[in-house]
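notes to self, project folder thing:

trying the whole complex as one job this time. last attempt i did each chain seperately and stitching them together was a nightmare. two parts in total, labels are on each line so i dont mix them up again. if this works i'll redo the older ones the same way
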Amino acid sequence: MRSLTRRSVALGAAATLLLAGCGGNDNKSSSSGGGGSAKPVTINWWHIQNQPPLQPVWDQIAKAYMAQHPNVTIKIQPIENEAFKAKLTTTTQSGKAPDLFQSWGGGVLKQQADAGLVQDLTDASKSWIGTIQPIALKPYTLDGKLYGVSWDNGMVGFWYNKKLFAKAGIDTPPTTWDDYLADVKKLKDAGITPIAVAGQDKWPEMYYWAYLAMRIGGVDVYNQAAQTNDFSGPAFVQAGQQLKRLVDLQPFQKGFEGAKFDTPDGEAAQVGGSKAAMELMGQWAPSVEETQSKKKLGDDLGFFQFPTVAGGKGQITDAFGGGNGFAVGKDAPPETIDFLKYFVSVQNQQTAAATGAILPTAKGAETALKDPRALNVLKTVSNATAFQLYLDQAFPPAVGQEVNDQVSALVAGKATPEQVAKAITQTAKSE
Amino acid sequence: MARSSLTDEQTRDVVSTSRAAKPADGGRTRRRRRRRTFVTIVLFLLPAFVLFALLVLVPFAVAAYSSFFKWNGLGGPPDDYVGLDNFKKLFGDPVFHADLRHMMILVVLSLVVQLPLALGLALMLSQRFHGRAVYRVLFFAPFVLSEVIAGVLFNILFSAENGIGLAAGWLADPSRVLYALFIVLTWKYFGLHMMLYLAGRQNIPQELLDAAATDGAGPWRQFRHVTLPLLGPTIRISVFLSVIGVIQLFDMVWVLTTGGPVHSSETMAVTMFNFGFRRFQVGYASAITMVMFLISLVFALFYQRFVMRRDIQGAITVMGETR
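result (full assembly):
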């Protein structure tokens, strides 16, 4: 699943940035339940941080918890994200679920909740959920019930090369779509590839369409679409038309249709290696750009929000993004929730945030972030006037994939804005 | 077993005389003997059959069953019966039409380009020359390599950014990606077919070729009238493997392009994977597997019935028939 790749890439690639703050300053006090005489239980924990910097941190957290709760054994299974996906699918198909497992919230979690595979955490987490930023919990709150807890949350925006922008005569990043298109032209005229995009992965192309629809109709268009399954409204068609204006400028790198996000010749490497001026990507972009291009942009890399569209209802402060969390399986012992509480505590989130691989969700944990850009993204998303989860997660998987497929066809010139809106609506209605 | 040394004719004689000698209870004895044979066959087949049932028949039945349901694979068995809707949707889906077209193109290219190439190389390598073994190993090596490794290597070769010469960017070009895929498949599999032909070629007695040469046949006529006909069974099986391989093609496509750009290198198996494991439309994905199965089955049956008939006849031993 693309969305999974995106995340694991973010986490995995940060491997090079890593460490420094990995030392253990977490396991003090808080032996919550205090139940010494409790009978032994085992928690099966599946996560996708199968490599540094996060895997050792997770191990350490589990160890510290087990030291405080001798009756609890945590069986950790770090699984590579694609493999996790397949393994979870076959497991859930047999009606079982791991006790604690990776979730991105949204449509997939909803399907799991509808099938009774995950626990409703609303009551069990009441006493401590206030320590987590509410905006980060939105994707995990379905029909007013909480089915998972987030430990990483961020947003998508333009990551741009300040030097290349200056070379093309652009002083400040654009705030309106018309200015943006004009800047793309300027970059092209200066002989610079304006945008890198991963056409083979498709989801990076989806961001443009999704943001445009949000800027034109406001986040309400997605709330409505979730109710009516209708994506054929004017906001969606216009989003396609505006995207087509961009595509017609031929702003993307050579061979973008076959490019992936996280390969040495992929989207991130293009920006990291100063071959393209910008990309529309989430909070993990800087670390992937660096690992894939093996070059450091440093302060030359800037971030600006997706511009507004003239006459649109959306504000520039409306954010589009998502993150990582954990859900609790239906047969999990109560200790699982206690461990989850411990896992997302401020100290543990600070340890994780210090690796630079996540944007923590616990209030106060952001002080551990070392990269000012990361802090900036976190602040922007925390103060967002509205928040929309990635479409391939907010909606049922079939709809999310159809959006990716259709937008990709639009960018390749194989579908019109109207056809795109119609095809997505068809899939949504049949779900 | 001792009887195997007799010719067919003798066998028939023995049977008929024994029949004539004991006309009264011959039928009963034969029936009893046949029943015992039957039990033996069943006992010997049982372990294999259990495995086959568990790993092939049951999953097949589940897929066939769920192809009539709308089912996301979660939360117990399917319960939303939709009849033939999945199949109707499938046959109206342009992506599926494209899958079929890609399959046909790859089959034709395999038969016209890949197999003749393998045959040519096999014939060259069956000649005596210095370093023959080295070439055989070299040509066979790609087949030994894992699909994923081969895929990743070619990804680099075809890369738009760092690709080699003309080939750069082919995987990003909807009009050329299928041919790029075919090049990789050929590179990966011609070694297998070459080995098959090589083995077949070595079974052709030198005397036949010598005789043909004595009769004045040049190299081409030797090939056309001796080598080729005698390689017939090998060629037919290699065509069969090749076609079935294309029908079920998945891994190389997945590693190289995941079916893109915009479905232009997608195959049925890739479409099935997308719907089953990404869109969680397991019912629809099952419908695709059913169609794949039917295409393979129909092809296999027709091919065996009409093309491989003679090859198979010699290979089938029928117990009891000769008694």
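what i see at first glance: Confidence is low (pLDDT under 50) at residues 1-36 of chain A.
need to look closer tmrw
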